[in-house]
Amino acid sequence: MFFSKNDRWVTIVQVGGTAGTIGLHFVSATVVGLFFGYWLDDFFGTKPWLIMIFFLLGVVAGFKMVWEDFHRLQRREEARRMEQQRSLKQDDEKSGGND
């Protein structure tokens, strides 16, 4: 099977998906901040100020989402390592430890 569980393509797709998500979160938060700042500046007539404020808020929100993505990725990797250790321990118990 092309995407078997132990295949390296699964790892490549997962890492690529995570990297794409992290980039998309950062860019989308910044663009949304710019959009709302521009719209509010146009509505209230305060041309440069709200766009700068909302741009900075968008960048901060983007960094926050990237930080959360990294923590989620780290927890997933720790869970995978724990599962591997559990699997190795069960395999060792099944073999009886006789070498």
Written overview of the protein:
With 99 residues, the protein is mostly helical. The protein has one domain. 87% of the residues lie in helices and 0% in strands. It is built from two helices and no strands. The chain has helices at 8-44, 47-95. The longest helix has 49 residues, at 47-95. The protein is rod-shaped and about 75 Å long. The protein starts with 7 loop residues before the first helix and ends with a helix.
What is this entry, summarized?
The protein is an all-alpha fold and 99 residues long. It has 2 helices and no strands.
List keywords for this structure.
single chain; 99 residues; mainly alpha; 2 helices; rod-shaped
Instruction: Kindly provide the radius of gyration, computed on alpha-carbon positions and rounded to a whole number of angstroms.
Output: 23 Å
Order of helices and strands: HH
Beta-strand portion reads under 5%
Instruction: Count up the helices.
Output: 2
User: How would you describe the shape?
Assistant: rod-shaped
Task: Flag low-confidence runs.
Answer: none
Tell me the number of strands: 0
State the major sheet: none
Helix content: over 70%
Structural class: mainly alpha
**Oligomeric nature of the chains:** single chain
- Could you give the distance between the termini? 34 Å
Whole-number tally of structural domains: 1
